[in-house]
Amino acid sequence: MLDASPERSSAFRTGQERLYEAYNDLHSLAQDFEKPFDAPAILVVGHQTDGKSALVEALMGFQFNHVGGGTKTRRPITLHMVYNSACVQPNCYLVTEDYGEQEVTLEELQDHIESENQRLEREQQFWAKEIVVKIEYKFCPNLTIIDTPGLIAAAPGRRNSQLQNSSKAVEGMVRMKMEQKEYILLCLEDTNDWSNATTRRLIMQVDPHLSRSVVVSTKLDTRLPQFARGSDVELFLRPPGRLLEPGMLGGCPFFTSVPSGRVGNAKDAIFRSNEHFREALRDREDRDVTELEHRLDRRLEKAERARIGVGQLRRFLEQLLQRRYLENVPSIVPLLEKEYRNAAARLVATQEELNDLHPDKLKEKGRHFREAFLQKLALLLRGTVAAPPERFGETLADEHIRGGAFVGPDGKTLPVFEGLPNAHMRLFGGAQYHRAMAEFRTGIGQLICPDISREEIVNACGIDDFHDGVNYTRTACVIAVSKARDMFEPFLHQLGYRFAHILRRMLPIAMFLLQRDSQFLNGHDLFLKRVGASYHAFIDEAERTCRGKCQEDLMSTTRYVTWSLHTKSRSSLKSMLSKVTTPERQEQRQRDVRPARDPEEENQVLDVLENTLWNRQLGVMSEEIVAALVCQIFEGIRDHVVQAVELKFNCFFLMPIVDSFPTRLREELEAAYEEDIDEVFDVAAVRNALDLRLKALESELHQVERLQRKFATIHSTLAQQMSSKPDPEAQPDEAMISQSQALDGLSKVAQVAKMADKFAKSMEFQPAAKVAHPSLSARA
């Protein structure tokens, strides 16, 4: 081990091992039963050739990765370190989707990672999918180390466009991982001037004060020869606050050197074994210290020495990890108690479900669930805040993506009215339905008639069966109803699909509310599928029926033009025909004294008659008259359709969910009960599922109880040991883990441990107080 320190007492090491073992069990419990416990992770971030992969190998004490010049890591590598006291040498497992967890040797693991990186390098690609490796090792904490691809500083210019795209892809991938708050960021800087914030530039966008970031200057052995004076080395070792954030994790940066060379039996291998590699690491650390003291012309202080070398960095991360563990104890013990109570309650409920598989009891449970489900649907339509909007709500943009937007005849999405209420809010149920109807009303209600071409007007004129004159009124009606029918019929389908989407979303929300209120039928998937299928079928049927009524209304409006519905045409025609001579205007002209009669004015009536009765040469006046008529008829049809569609969807689509669906669901379920109860509940499958659940809950309960006892005993011992004998390796630096902080945390841990121990004893002497199941009385 790199941090093997003979000064550390065996009792402390034993207590630390017990702590790691307890967290290992906690981690296993979290993975096996999906519990909210997890170990922290260290995310390694740096630019390409900063030495990230080499540092990860040095921290772990053995080589497994593809290390070299250029960008070698092209996929993130997640290393799940698992404590295992029986593993003197690391046991490696490659985790894949196809084959699960496969045990591999270090050489096989290295070959796999190298081949994968070489393949991506040939393809000039990066892949966000992680290579997942699990490693079991003695004295190794439950820790996840994530080695990310190196950040790329691409040069400008078109010739470097591919490298620029790769830079953006890698930066986005790494930033997404850095946003996980539980991650400790290991920020690698390959520089001798702290004013150049290469990696910190990206990290400080997520962690502005570096409060969860450990800054590491790599390649110290190549950095030292670049300093000419001892003052430069002093500035590098202890950068002032103007160059580096004083609030960084650890207070000051760490400095590491990793000897070059690979482990193996090949001709170019430098190290014959991992033990040889670890010895080289210790030797490199000693030589760096000697070189620093020579250039500074003094011995390093204890705080300075604690930041030089891979071994010191690993020791700091272990202490930091142990502190995180100890700080989490006050929250873990109550969580374990809560999980115990929940598991015990589920165990009793499962046993009761096994006893309630009688047909009459199943029918009664189904009826209770049915009525509760109908109540939740009605509640969602009326409005509720019981369901979290961040999980179940949809903004208008989300609704457009999943339920479709209103698309015009030109294939473009209709713009959303700027004043549409609640467009950016996450809504569900009745509120979402109302917003969609408002969007339809404002969007479709403001559509204008499409442009009319002269060819359309001439073709619509045709020829009459009594004379060869032109009936421009009929022409306008033909054009208007054709364009209205083509315009509005697709919107009926789009609106029906949108409303069906909104109401279908209410099913999972109602199920969530039933689970929250303990009204859900666990294990009866066949019954739940029947209820869901009935609900979806009713929505589809109601949507088809309502859409059919709307289409009939559209057909009646566009089949025969009723002028009483289109009164807007009068004002437009009056404006368009303002130039036509009328009796009133003739009298006005007679009162006026004019020197001569205007021949153009006398011929206005003749021009109007000629243009509107028998002249097929389409003039400006005729075109304007037809366009005005078409627009007014179209607007009348539009207003009538919008009002009729809103009424019909409210009456024949929304209200049946409240009025008709409950009766339909009751009749269908009662009829299914009478035919075959097994087709409704599948009693045999339910019984098998309940038996499996019962066994899983018993196992979970046993593990939780064992962890309660373990956390109730080992931490009080660790607190006493650390309080009585401080760690000789602990550093006096203010930013390091202070003794007083550790003791304060451990005093709280001791109090919690006593409480948990008292609780464990009470459980031991009163097993029946927890649950009434016989398996719960067997205490480990």
Describe the structure.
With 780 residues, the protein is an alpha/beta fold. Helices cover 59% and strands 6% of the residues. The protein contains 27 helices and 9 strands. A 9-stranded mixed sheet has the order 4-3-5-2-6-1-7-8-9, sandwiched between helices. The longest helix has 46 residues, at 310-355. Residues 1-13, 578-586 and 725-780 have low confidence and may be disordered.
How is this structure best summarized?
InterPro entries: Dynamin, Dynamin_GTPase, Dynamin_N, G_DYNAMIN_dom, P-loop_NTPase. The chain is of the alpha/beta class.
**Strands, total number:** 9
Radius of gyration: 39 Å
Number of distinct helices: 27
Helix content: 55-70%
Beta-strand residue percentage: 5-15%
What is the averaged pLDDT score? 78
Strand order of the largest sheet: 4-3-5-2-6-1-7-8-9
* Low-pLDDT segments, ≥5 res: 1-13, 578-586, 725-780
Secondary structure category: alpha/beta
Distance between the termini: 35 Å
Principal-axes geometry comes out as: extended
* Biggest sheet statistics: 9 strands, mixed
List keywords for this structure.
single chain; 780 residues; alpha/beta; disordered N terminus; P-loop_NTPase; Dynamin; microtubule binding; Dynamin_N; GTP binding
Question: What is the fold's blueprint, element by element?
Answer:
Layout: H1 10-33, E1 41-45, H2 52-60, E2 77-83, E3 91-96, E4 100-104, H3 106-122, E5 131-137, E6 143-147, H4 161-178, E7 183-189, H5 199-206, E8 213-217, H6 220-223, H7 230-237, E9 254-255, H8 274-296, H9 302-305, H10 310-355, H11 359-382, H12 389-392, H13 396-403, H14 429-444, H15 454-461, H16 472-504, H17 506-516, H18 525-559, H19 569-576, H20 583-591, H21 599-602, H22 604-614, H23 620-659, H24 661-675, H25 678-681, H26 683-724, H27 739-765
Parallel strand pairs: 1-6, 1-7, 2-5, 7-8, 8-9
Antiparallel strand pairs: 2-6, 3-4, 3-5
